[in-house]
Design brief:
Keywords: Signal. By secondary structure, the protein is mainly beta. It has two helices and eleven strands, in the order αβββββββββββα.
């Protein structure tokens, strides 16, 4: 076939073949899972892996009454794009925000994210508004050896129908050290030292029972 109007057909075919070949040679590039933007509850930027790049984490709704997903991204500084670094499921409970239902009504119980100075992520999980006994949880997430782990655990508990019924705890999961407190009938607080075996636990494998057990609950 002859070239027309300066169009190099053979060169075009060669270029398409080269691009197709490059696509086949890049199977290791992680692909992000499609996300509906209206399902993003909250997002946070920071430097999770300490390379001075701006990374990203998002909490995304799944289905009504199902746990939410947490999506992690790390910046590829050489190519300047966000690379998917994992999705953790079944760890975050919150209220569906009702965006796709008649009479939109935002939820009032949603997880919160904040960045800590050392590059860790603070994840606050408020109690669901059911009953008088409420337990709020806080997790500190850190990036270690290619995995997001739970570096810290904390909680505060209150019974809103009983006087002086409350407790709290905050401990470092990696070292096993921390403190817990429990309110006494007279309104005073007794404090204890938490001293358990330190552990390295991936966020995807975290069980809240580990934290409560360490705190003596």
């Amino acid at each position: 076939m002859a070239d027309t109007a300066g169009f190099n057909f053979r060169g075009y075919v060669a270029m398409r073949a080269m691009l197709f070949g490059l696509a086949l040679l890049a199977p290791t590039m992680a692909l992000a899972e499609p996300i509906e933007t209206q399902k993003i509850i909250t997002a946070l930027t920071g430097d999770w892996n300490g390379d001075s790049g701006t990374d990203l984490v998002m909490i995304v709704e799944t289905e009504p009454s199902d746990p939410m997903d947490m999506h992690f991204f790390l910046r590829d500084r050489e190519r300047n794009f966000l690379r998917p670094a994992g999705i953790v499921r079944d760890q975050i409970i919150g209220e569906w925000n009702g965006y796709d239902r008649p009479g939109y009504d935002a939820s009032d119980t949603e997880p919160e994210l904040s960045a800590l100075p050392n590059g860790s992520i603070k994840l606050y999980l408020p109690a669901m508004p059911v009953g008088s006994k409420r337990t709020n949880q806080t997790l500190t997430l850190a990036y270690r050896d290619g995995v997001f782990i739970v570096a810290g655990f904390g909680y505060d508990y209150h019974d809103y129908l009983e006087d002086n019924v409350a407790s709290d705890c905050d401990y470092n999961v990696l070292t096993g050290k921390g403190k817990s407190g429990k309110m006494q009938p007279d309104g005073s607080t007794s404090e204890k030292t938490v001293a358990v075996e330190g552990k390295v636990i991936a966020f995807s494998e975290w069980n809240p029972g580990t934290g409560f057990s360490a705190c003596g609950e």
